[in-house]
Amino acid sequence: MGELLRELRGDCDTLGCWVGNLPRGCELCMEGAKSVIFVTGVCPERCWYCPLSRARKGRDVIYVNEVLARDIKDVVTEVAANLSRGAGITGGDPIARLDRTVEIIKALKDAFGRDFHIHLYTTGYLLTAERMAELVRAGLDEIRIHVTGEHSYRALAIAAGSGIDVGVENPAIPGTEKKLLDVIRRAAKTGAVFVNLNELEFSEGNEASLLLRGYRTEDGVAATGSRETALHVLAAVVKEGIDISVHYCPARYKDAVQYRRRLARRAIATRMPYEEIDDSLVKWAEISTDEGVSKRLIVSGLAFIRGDRVVTSCTLAKRLGLRHTLVKAYPLSPRKVIETREEQS
């Protein structure tokens, strides 16, 4: 295993590691340049390890990243606010709401151009040749099939003849090395060009189900043994010389890399004049309206009225020696405040 780890590209503990080439969707994801579009929580399957929250599972709602979207305009606006160069369309099963999914793909291509990369996740349960053709005509660039049964292989065969990039994406359930290797072998023969193995993740939506089946977690996120299962599969792929790219994606990657990088891009795109960027957060200073200098700052355009507070940059508040409240927030709309503290310069 040690020799394998030295041969793999990437970082198995944080970024993920792989043999072969990364899918284009994953490359953009690693840059934080992909928006996640949750088209619907409706799905014809009932996977026991599904990580969806109660707020999303089975509910016909749309989210872009963490933001609830009311319509297609909201979707395009949020993607623009994240400076995204691509989007991953997920659910539920996006094909359960095919018309909506096609409309979103077309809207994104119209707004951001042909080079805007779009990939889609499905188990293939509802995929037909006609539906696949409709997705491709709309502008889909890549499809990832979560193999749950024979219908998934039929969907793979349909997708493989569509002219777009086709792959498989499954969780690395501990102890399922033989099953995953079989999936990879069949995927390669069917025309898939990559397989993604995701570390099995504990979430609000699947925790009870995982615990009942005997799975445990040491860090509250990843299932114990999932990483080892994925790496054993990678080793077997290398040993057998299977002609397909295989990528292992750790559970912590979403928060440690993807989410933070996406937030950093959103902070750049949506920064207000009084905000400063602090890693993937934004921060500002709130000063009292009683401060004699506040009116002069407002008139000069260096401070702004926000509700019953006057806000300005932290740097300016410090330089002027103003008593102020430092506020840090996620750069969401509206801002999600995570820290406030009184400061005296």
Describe the structure.
- With 345 residues, the protein is α/β, with parallel strands linked by helices.
- Helix content is 36%, strand content 26%.
- It contains twelve helices and 17 strands.
- The chain has helices at residues 2-7, 24-30, 72-81, 98-112, 129-138, 150-160, 177-190, 207-212, 226-240, 253-270, 294-299, 314-319, and strands at 9-11, 16-19, 34-40, 62-64, 67-69, 86-91, 117-122, 142-145, 165-172, 194-199, 245-249, 276-278, 281-287, 303-306, 309-312, 323-330, 336-344.
- The strands form two sheets. Strands 1-2-11-10-9-8-7-6-3-4-5 form an eleven-stranded mixed beta sheet.
- A hairpin with a 2-residue loop joins β12 and β13.
- The radius of gyration is 23 Å and the shape is elongated.
- The chain starts with a helix and ends with a strand.
